[in-house]
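Example 3.2
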Amino acid sequence: MSASSEHESAKTQGDVWTSRRLIRWIDSHLTAKGIDSPRVCAEMLVGHVVGAERMKLYMEADRPASATELERLRALVVRASRHEPVQYLVGEAWFWSKRFAVGPATLIPRPATEHLVEEAVASARAAAAAGARPIRVLEIGTGTGCISTCVAAALRGQRRGTEPTDTPVVPIDIQIIATDIVPGAIELARLNATAHGASEAIELRLGSIYEPLTPQEQGTFHVLISNPPYVRDDEWQEMAANVREHEPRSALAGGTAGMDVLAPLIANAHTWLAPAGRLVVEIGHRQHDDVLAAARLNPQLIDAEIRKDFEGFWRMLVATRR
């Protein structure tokens, strides 16, 4: 695909670079470079350059790439082979079967975090069933806004993706406050909320942890959800190169024990939660003991437990305010 020593040359081959051939070659090349999920990366890169969704990519697998497309793709493959996240290269990532704009100001959404959406939605519905109106949700560290946007979508009757549920669901009146310390994240979250029709339900505020909130909002939230920075200092070098070198450290690193944000988040959660409100927080899989201990130190939190993600790792703290 390139005249450089790293790439196979289309002209030398004397044939055409189709989408099928490009995906196969990029998959092989990224595998050799030690890139995670090389096939998915190849599909994302080719799809981005030729302007095709994954299904269309394979339906038109024999579509030849133009010279301009090959030049664009060549540059992206070089960057991807150096561990630059493909999601940043194409400017998007999928979460809860929805497409979200992403950029270097925010973390790339992960499938494991979808558990937080499911738990937050279940907690919000339980509060609504108990008569609470409107349902108020607080998200600390919103990043791309994917969690708040998907919670808003689900409570409007959507499931994963954009299709309605089989059984009609009465929409729940919801108010979401989503905060972040990074101005660029706030702007990206606003863009994503608007793209998915959730902007009216989500108010975005700039600031650290609970700083953007007002005294009048104490005790008013039925769900408090967060995916905070929790990577321990001794885990930092264990992180994959594409994460460690490219995603924002401020959204990942949680200090010596990974508790720099988690500790104050948990210690003060009861101040903002309504009675019987639910705390739902993503954690590092090696810090479940520390997190559970922190939750149990707060006498206003009960029924604290750590749950596993779909890969079997301890991943989520759930607790209830008295």
